[in-house]
Amino acid sequence: MIISIDVSNGLAIYDQIVRQIKFAVASGIILPGELVPSVREMAKQTAVNPNTVSRAYRELQSEGILEVVRGTGLQVSTGALKQCRKDRQGLIQERLRAVLKEAQQSQLEVDDIRQLIEAELARLNGKGTSK
Amino acid sequence: MIISIDVSNGLAIYDQIVRQIKFAVASGIILPGELVPSVREMAKQTAVNPNTVSRAYRELQSEGILEVVRGTGLQVSTGALKQCRKDRQGLIQERLRAVLKEAQQSQLEVDDIRQLIEAELARLNGKGTSK
Amino acid sequence: MIISIDVSNGLAIYDQIVRQIKFAVASGIILPGELVPSVREMAKQTAVNPNTVSRAYRELQSEGILEVVRGTGLQVSTGALKQCRKDRQGLIQERLRAVLKEAQQSQLEVDDIRQLIEAELARLNGKGTSK
Amino acid sequence: MIISIDVSNGLAIYDQIVRQIKFAVASGIILPGELVPSVREMAKQTAVNPNTVSRAYRELQSEGILEVVRGTGLQVSTGALKQCRKDRQGLIQERLRAVLKEAQQSQLEVDDIRQLIEAELARLNGKGTSK
DNA sequence: GTGGTCTAGACCACC
DNA sequence: GTGGTCTAGACCACG
Question: Is residue D89 pLDDT above 90, yes or no?
């Protein structure tokens, strides 16, 4: 699992770690039962303050994504995969709703919105297949 | 023009003012050449410190949305309407692209995405017409 | 004499009036002994608050450019032409010095500066003659 | 980097800070990637309120000269050097053009202007070498 | 420790 | 009356 940090993108570093681990879990890159890198290890890898990694892990524990294995480290918990997928789905849905709502408030017709979306989907697919 | 502030939504107060004024300009609620409420007036209206309003107005000046008329107040500048509309459009497009991209990365099929979108659009329209 | 005011250029209105009258005197557009328009007249002409015109005239009186003719109005004083010319000269010289100094502080070589100047002079002359 | 404030020169304090930092960047006194003094540090150094320093830094951020490194400070951004140099050059050119234009409007012959300039350049150089 | 935001209250120039 | 600037002091999130 590779975590890459961008210090100057406005997002808190701990939050970048949280999101990327959730993403890794949702995508099956790291499976329930597997250990995440230790705080020190991750801190070295990402050149980040251990406090910050620790905070990210704490956050993930409180959300039930990670759980302590005494004397061993932190592992991805059993329900984490399903939860991360659902989170992801929910988050996407929420953001989709927000942007659609705003689009409508801006005098955009429903058909204009659909057109915009199809254009963007085509763009993404074009990029994806050509790669 | 009515500006409503929500102190506990995470967004900075000055930013809420900035956005709502841009929205008002983009929507034609306030036209180029018209004066925005004075700093003190707006501060009273929104129960916010005048400095905070001033900061929002300064931000809008530096973006070319507002301009000072010495001793008289701040007026919406000539190019503001077009600029705010374009900003708004660009912002929506960008956010749409981001969420669609993320949706695709989450193993959602294009048709699933379309279905989600239609559901959300229906929700919005239902809300709109029933109200 | 035509005075034109630009409310949104940052310069105080009264100052714009002061400068334009000095310019008119220096250029011989208005001669010593001639009356300037009355406060009310000028205020109407320029669509400016009479207080503001009054302030400009006061400024010009205190600099000795204008003088009261009791019951008649304000006239350009005898020494005004020479003084305005000198002022103008001095002001230009001062600004020239300031900009040259700054240019030198910015690692510009003397010859680069000369080149820049010649380019600008050519531009101005080109414009002037072609007009 | 030394920032010196003159409270009684008409220029706003925050603007003096902005200009001097731009100057320092343009001159290579402070390089892209380096941190500027912290808000509190700079405030102590210049005997100015931290808010005022903060405002100057905010201004520089919005112009893309500085960028935040969360919890660490503000660093000179990558493109800042080039940008500051260009700004500086453009500003000088603009002011040069303005003063030359005004000089010509004042019945000064081109050769008189050249003479004035050479005199000023000599003055500056004399000062520079004698120092 | 860092910057970001906000409030409160003051003074200024300009109209 | 208008905006612009500054100070003082407080609280927050982040590292």
Answer: no
Average pLDDT, whole number, for chain C?
89
Q: Is B117–A100 a contact, with Cβ atoms under 8 angstroms apart?
A: yes
Mutate one of C9, C87, C91, C96 to test the D interface: name it (highest D CB count within 10 A): C96
Chain C: list its partners (3+ Cβ pairs within 8 Å): B, D
The parent domain of residue A73 ranges over 13-80
* Contact list, B128 vs chain A (CB under 8 Å): 104
**Cβ within 8 Å of D, C 16-55:** 26-27
- Could you tell me which chains touch chain B, where touching means 3 or more CB pairs under 8 A? A, C
D24/B102: higher pLDDT = D24
A7 in a domain, yes or no? no
Query: A38 and A63: one domain?
Result: yes
* Residue D68 domain-assigned (yes or no): yes
* Strand E close to B46 by CB, under 7 A: no
- Residue D31 identity: L
Closest by CA position to C113, among listed A13, D12, D122, A47: D122
Q: Residue D115 has which token pair?
A: 């003479």
What Rg do the C-alpha atoms of chain A give, in angstroms?
18
C86 in the same domain as C33: no
Do A120 and B96 lie within an 8 Å CB cutoff? Answer: yes
Phi, psi of B69, rounded to the nearest 5 degrees: -115, 105
Cα dihedral B122, B123, B129, B130, rounded to 10, equals 130
Q: A3 near A45, Cβ under 8 Å?
A: yes
Q: Is C122 on the interface with B (CB under 8 A)?
A: no
Whichever domain contains B68, its CATH number is 1.10.10.10
- Cβ atoms of residues C17 and C3 within 8 Å: yes
- Quick check: D131 contacting A, CB < 8 Å? no
| Record: contact B68-C8, CB cut-off 8 A | yes
Domain shared by C71 and C122, yes or no? no
Is C115 an interface residue toward D (CB < 8 Å)? no
> One-letter amino acid identity for B131?
K
CB-nearest to A121 from B100, B116, B128 is B100
Question: Could you give the CA distance from residue B89 to residue B91 in angstroms, rounded to a whole number?
Answer: 5
Separation between Cα atoms, residue D93 and residue D116, nearest integer Å: 18
Instruction: Tell me the one-letter amino acid at C15.
Output: D
How many Cβ contacts (< 8 angstroms) between chains A and D? 8
Name, in order, each residue with C-beta under 8 angstroms of A122's C-beta and a sequence gap of 6 or more: none
Q: Which residues in 19-78 of chain A line strand F, with CB less than 7 A from it?
A: 48-49, 51-52, 55
- Total domain count for chain B? 2
| pTM of the entire predicted model | 0.86
Residue B54 pLDDT > 50: yes
Could you write out the DSSP letters of every residue in A21-32? HHHHHHTTSS-T
Give, in Å, how far the C1' of E9 lies from the CA of B50.
Answer: 11
Asked if residue A116 is part of any domain, the answer here is: yes
Reported as a pLDDT band with limits 50, 70 and 90, residue C73 is very high
